[in-house]
Amino acid sequence: MQPLEPLTVLIAEDSAADRLLLSTIVRRQGHEVLTAANGAEAVEVFRREQPHLVLMDAMMPVMDGFEAARQIKTLAGESLVPIIFLTSLTESEALARCLEAGGDDFLAKPYNQVILTAKIKAMDRLRRLQATVLQQRDLIARHHDYLLNEQRVAKAVFDKVAHSGCLSAPNIRYLQSPYALFNGDLLLAAYTPAGDMHVLLGDFTGHGLPAAVGAMPLAEVFYGMTAKGYGLAETLREMNAKLKRILPVDMFCCATLLSLSFQRRTVEVWNGGMPDGYLHCIATGERKPLAARHLPLGVLSPQAFNDRTEVHSMAVSDRVFLLSDGVIDTCDAQDQLFGVERLQQLFAANRQPDHLFEEIEQALHDFGGEARDDVSMVEVSLLEAAQVSPSAPVYSDSGQSCPLDWSVSFEFRGATLKRFNPMPYLLQLLLEVHGLRAQSGALYSVLAELYSNALEHGVLGLDSSLKRDAQGFARYYEQRNARLDALQDGYVRVHLKVTPEGEGGCLAIRVEDSGKGFDVTRVMQRPLDDVRLSGRGVSLIRQLGRNAGWSDDGRSAHVEFFWEALA
Amino acid sequence: MSVVTEVSPDQKKLTISIKGRFDFGRHQEFRESYERLNQKPESIVVDLKDATYLDSSALGMLLLLRDHAGGDESDVRVVNSNSDVRKILAISNFDKLFDIS
Fold this sequence. Notes:
The complex is a heterodimer of chains A (about 575) and B (about 100). Chain A has three domains: about 10-135, Rossmann fold (3-Layer(aba) Sandwich); about 165-385, PPM-type phosphatase domain (Phosphatase 2c, domain 1, 4-Layer Sandwich); about 405-565, Histidine kinase-like ATPase, C-terminal domain (Heat Shock Protein 90), CATH 3.30.565. Helices cover about 40% and strands about 20% of the residues of chain A. The longest helix of chain A is centred in the N-terminal third of the chain and has 50 residues, at about 115-160. The N and C termini of chain A lie far apart (about 90 Å). Chain A has helices at about 15-30, 40-50, 65-75, 90-100, 115-160, 210-215, 215-225, 230-245, 325-330, 340-350, 355-370, 415-420, 425-430, 435, 440-460, 470-485, 520-525, 535-545, and strands at about 10, 30-35, 55, 85, 105-110, 170-175, 185-190, 195-205, 255-260, 265-270, 275-280, 285-290, 310-315, 320-325, 375-380, 405-415, 490-500, 505-515, 545-550, 555-565. Chain A has about 575 residues and is an alpha+beta fold. Chain A contains 18 helices and 20 strands. Chain B has a five-stranded mixed sheet. Chain B has helices at about 25-35, 55-70, 85-90, and strands at about 5, 15-20, 45-55, 75-80, 100. The radius of gyration of chain B is 12 Å and the shape is globular. Chain B has one domain (about 5-100): STAS domain (Transcription Regulator spoIIAA). Chain B is of the alpha/beta class. The two termini of chain B are about 25 Å apart. In chain B, helix 1 (about 25-35) runs parallel beside helix 2. The model of chain B has no long low-confidence stretch (mean pLDDT about 90). At the A-B interface, loops of A face helix 2 and helix 3 of B. Chain B: It comes from Pseudomonas koreensis. Chain B: Pfam families: STAS. Chain B: GO terms for molecular function: anti-sigma factor antagonist activity. Chain B: This is STAS domain-containing protein.
């Protein structure tokens, strides 16, 4: 055994002879000795000299050993200063009192040198153990503080990115633990230029910083591409490719993406690896599951990735509810999962839709006892298009190089129509014209509507009357996908012409397709405020653009936008 | 041992059995179970008969195994999963990558 480090030992003993005897024994072991003749003196010496260990006589004048022990223990605080009582007391009650007063051991008189030495050694071991524990505890606490601080800073940076979107929109309710990000949960929402709303609920594999790292690039892609008018498919492909490239093999991101169109009253859904979401139809009370059809983001190569989405019709105030696996994977004490059935029972019992989150939280609490911090829920409801007010995009260029007199024509042919969405490019081009920026939402909506009419009704020959009811609606989008897959030829042409007019200008858009056309007179006779599922596109174009018209038996559509002098 | 490995006599087939929770705590053992082999097996079977639970890091480990075994050319089967485990594999659509039974 390695020799003891010399200790400072306080000997509190009222008998001068005993004091001398003890001092000699202790000094002989190599320790330094301090002495006191009563309890009050002992406390005073302790305060001044901070000895490592105390030998304390129980019975002393002025202040007895019991009271002195209590005071010394208080002064010592967290660090262990062992107190060995020296006592001629023999009855067990008195010995117990020594320990109750804070003593760690006792030594019976007359003193046995061998036992005293052994006890000092044993107490010193305890003292060191306590010191090590305290040191390690403080170290852990310090590391924990660092970690929390790092998370706080990382979260602040991330919140700037994540909340640059529209999570605060009136039709979004969500619940996330403040540090959900460090459990890999991610919630993003943003408006497209056409006023549609894109929402992403994601869940990265793993916990802590690794789980949070992938969130930043994912959010950048989501916001960047949504703002530019890319659809879900393009955004998904880009997110998948990016995550596949940057993440290690065993990391990926389960995600559900939504695109809510207030104009068309539809929701487009892609679910890769998330629990079922639910489309809640308020009128019927039905909750349609939005099941995972795909592998999570970041697993498949860009070639193998599947961006196929599902489209469902919605009525105003219908809701889409998404949740992370923290909800259904909450375990009780027996390792039983909360599960989907219990969630559905809550749905069935729910009377006030606005209290659903609280009811789920309460049920999870009652079930599992302890709250998990990776429980995320979001609910998005469909508003009247007129109630939606996306904030205007911010542009940073000066406007000096604004092009005001030009025209351009595109022809998009079969193979291109299958995979490529030209809308974002066309919109970027048009928004170089500063006068059009104020109407970017209307412009995008009209352009997108003209293009999808030309593609779906023209080139693909789909019958819009199919969309009259919800089943037909689903069938319509099935047919759309099937015909698009089989598409060989056909074209959509887009002609854009910008001309200056006085201080302002005019944009003329013409879109032609290779389809069979339609009965223009009949469609134009419909009232403008048509709220049926089908045919909404045409009235939208007529309301948002000027001088809208169709020619060549419906195969050619044109519409104009004007702007005045810029302020 | 919560991860037990068995190599067929001809060294062509590796069977990895997981007992109890299949989560991040098994990470090291699971990786070692196939990385320490001198000869790469032609096929790998992950037996989940005694696995009670599987979390997303376990899914990540399966992806690592698949990658190690040759990615799209690999032959990795996941067998004997109980209903809870099968649900988790189904939600993640891992049946598109693994032969699950």
